[in-house]
Amino acid sequence: MFCGANPRWTSQLCYPLSSIMTVSSKYSPLLFVCSLLFTPGCAFLFDWVDTASSAPLVPHFTECISREMATFSCWWSTGSFQNISSPEDLKVFYERKSPGKTDRNECPQYNYLNQECFFDANHTTAWDTYCLELHVHNVTYANEDDCFTLPYIVIPDPPVALNWTLLNLSPSGLSYDVLVSWKPPPSADVKSGWMRVEYELQYRELNSTKWKNLEIQYDPQQTIYGLHVGREYEVHIRSKMKAFVKFGEFSKSIFIQIEGSGDDGTSFPVMLALIFGISGIFIIIMFIVVSQHQRLIMILLPPVPAPKIKGIDSELLKKGKLEELNLILSGGGMGGLSAHAPDFYQDEPWVEFIEVDIDGADSSEKEDNQGSDTQRLLALSQQVGNHMHIGSSNATCFPDDDSGRASCYDLDHPDQDPLIPMATLLPGQPEDREASADRDQTTAPQTWVNTDFYAQVSNVMPSGGVVLSPGQQLRAQENQEDAKKGSKKETCDDNAKDIHFQLLVVDPENTEIKQNSTPSTSPVSNEGYQTVPLQTVDPNPIEEQQSPYILTPDSPQSPPFTPVADYTVVQEVDSQHSLLLNPPPQQQAPPPSCQSQHPLKSLPAMPVDYITPDLFGHLSQ
Amino acid sequence: LVCSSGSCVSLRRVGTWIESAENEKTEKNCVSVCVQEQQVAPSRNHIGRVNRNCHTSSILTPNDKENAQRMTREELTEVILKLLVAWREPLWHFEQRLRPQSLETSDRAAQVGRMVHEVRSGVQRVAQKMQMLGMIGNFVSGLSSPEAQAPSESSEWQLLQNWDLLHCLRRDANKVQNYLKILKCRIVPEYGC
C-alpha cells in the first residue's frame, strides 16, 4: 500500500482524484494546486490513480479525523454519482467492535452540508474498532480501509500563543539565541494526561524558502541557536500525537528579529585587532627562533654520538701510536682483538714466516726412508723458495740463523745490505741437481744455483755478508783428490781439524752467477760464487768451535780432507754431547771410523732441521 | 528505535514510574511495537475489518476519558498491572517465536524481539516493585516468571498469528501508556501535564 510505504505522508494524499474537487481547506496546498491544474504530473502523487480513474468512483469516505481523542468526524464523498439529491438517499452506518460485543448503529449526527458524520463523546470509545459504511440507494458501499481505531485518526490542533524571548547575545554582537514557547492546542486535553502531544518547530529566514526543522519534542518550548542579528526569521509549529505519525497543521507564524548595527560595522575592528595580534605573536616567535637558533637545534636535533671501538682511542690513531694499536689488535690489551698473532715478531711486523708442510714430509718419510726424503725436501724447498721469491719480488729473504726462519726485507730500503737470498740457494742433491738446474735455467728470476741442498755458511762477514761453501760435487772431487793422498782415517781426523770454511757471498743482483751455473760443472765452485772481500776467518777458532756448518769452498786452501759433505746437520745429540750428524749423500761414503770415533759424525743423508740457537750453544760447550 | 507508528510503552523502575510515561523523549527508554504498515496492514487505518479478539479482552479497561478519570488511583494501577502481567508470557513466547526468523526479516524480527524482551523485563520489575510496596494485592500469583509458571489460563494468545499478536500488543501498550499518563498527571501535575 502506497500510504504505508511512507508513513510520513498524510492520509490526504491517498484520496482519489475526484475527491479533490470537493476538497476543503484542510487539504495541503500542493494537492489543491494539483487538483486545479489537473495535470498528469500530479499523477505521481497518487500511485493508484490509474486504477482509480478507470473505475467509476463510488461513494466513499474521504477521511476521519479526531482532534482530541474524544470525538471524531468522518467525511464522505458521493463519487461520480450525480443523482444524490436528497439526504435520504445516503446513509452512514457504522460498526463498533468492542471486546466481546459488536454493535451497529447509524451515524449519530449528520451534516449533509459538509458531508460529515460527527461522533460525539458518547459514541466515541478509544481502542475500539470502527468500521463505517455508506448506504446509497440501498446499496452498501463498504471498504476495508474504512476501519480504524481512535488513536490512529487523531490529529491534534496546532499550538497557540507562540512567543519568543531573547536568551543571550554573542560577544561579537552578531548572533543570538532565542527561546520560543507556546501553549498546547486548547482542544487537546494535555493537562489531564489523556493526550500526549509532540511538537515540531520550523524556522527560516524570510528571504529563503527552505525551512529548518528542529527536533520533535514534548516540551512546549524550544531554543533556537545561532540567529543572526539584523535578519528576520519566521517560526511556526505543528503538533502530533506521540507515538503516532500524523502531524497537524502548522500554527500561525511568528517573526523574530533583532535590530543590529550590521555585520560589517562591528566585525571590522575586531578582525583588524585579531590580525594585528596574530602577526605580532608571529613576529615574536620568529625573533625567539632566530636568536636562540643554536639552542633550539640542540634541543630538537641532539647530535648523534659517533661510533667508537671499545678500547681504541681515535686519538692514538691520529698521533701515530702504532705500538699501542698493535698491542690492542694483538690481544695484549684489555679486550684485545686477536689472540693468534705470533708473539715473536711484534716488533718486526715485516717478518715473513715460512711454513713447511712437516706432516707431508713425515708421512712420506714413513713410506720411503731412502733417499727420496731429500727429493721431497728439495721439492718443498723449491716450492718454498719459489713462493718466497715470486711472492715477494721486492723482498729478499735470507735464513735467519738463529731462528731457522727466513727473514725477508724489502729491497727498496737502501740502508739494508744486499744479502743473498739464502733460501733460494739451497743446494740440490746430485741426482736432482739436473732437475733443479733445469728449473733454474727455465725460470729467470730463479736464483737457483747448482749447489747442494744446503749451503753451509763458511763465514759471516762484518758487513753482513755471508760466505758459503761450495757444492757437494766439488767436495767429492776434492775428496777424490785427497783420497789419493791420504788414508781415510787420517783424512777424517784431519778433516775434523782442518776443516776450513769459507763463506761465499753471492750477490743477488748478479744474475750471471745463477744463470751461468751448470749442473755438470762441479766448479759450481768458487767461480760460481762471487766473493766479497771479506777477511777469511781463521779456521782455527772455527775448529775449536767445532762448527760443522762452516765449510770452506776454497779448494787450494782446503786441507786434505775426507769426503765429508760441505755441511753437516745435526741429527741428534746423545748423552755425551756428541752430535749425530746426518750422513752425507750417496757419493760419499762416510768413513765408519769417523762416525764412531770422531765426535763429528758423518753427514746424514737427509738433513732434518736446522739447529736452534740454544742447541748451538750446547754444541759450542 | 523509532516510534513511528505504534504505541510507546515505557516501563522503568516503579520508583520512577511516574516519570516513565513522560520520559519518552529518549527513545531508548521507550519500548515501542512499531509495526510496519506495509507489512501487516493493507488497510488505510491499519486495522482491517476483522475483529481481533485479543487475549486481554477480558480485562475491563476504561475506553474513554471520563471513565478513566472517574477511576481511582488504585483501580487504575490495578488495570495497568493486569494488562502488563497478562502480556508477560505471550511476550516471552513471541520472543521465542521471532528468533528463528529468516534472514530477510531478521532485522525487524530481532528488533521486535528486543523490544518484547525489554517490555517483559520492565513489566517484571514494575510488578515486583509494586508488590514490594504493597500496592497490589491479588496479583501475587500472576507475578512469577512465565517460565516457571504453567500456562494455566486460556492460551488464546497462542492462537493468534504474529500480526494479530502485534496488533493486540500495540493496542494494549497504548492503553497502558495513557493510563500511566493519567496517573502521573493526577499525582504530580506539574511535570509536563
Automatic annotation (TrEMBL), chain B:
One of its GO terms (molecular function) is hormone activity. InterPro entries: 4_helix_cytokine-like_core, Somatotropin/Prolactin, Somatotropin_CS. Keywords: Disulfide bond, Hormone, Secreted. GO terms for biological process: positive regulation of receptor signaling pathway via JAK-STAT; response to nutrient levels. GO terms for cellular component: extracellular space. It is found in: Secreted. Belongs to the somatotropin/prolactin family. This is Prolactin. It comes from Periophthalmus magnuspinnatus.
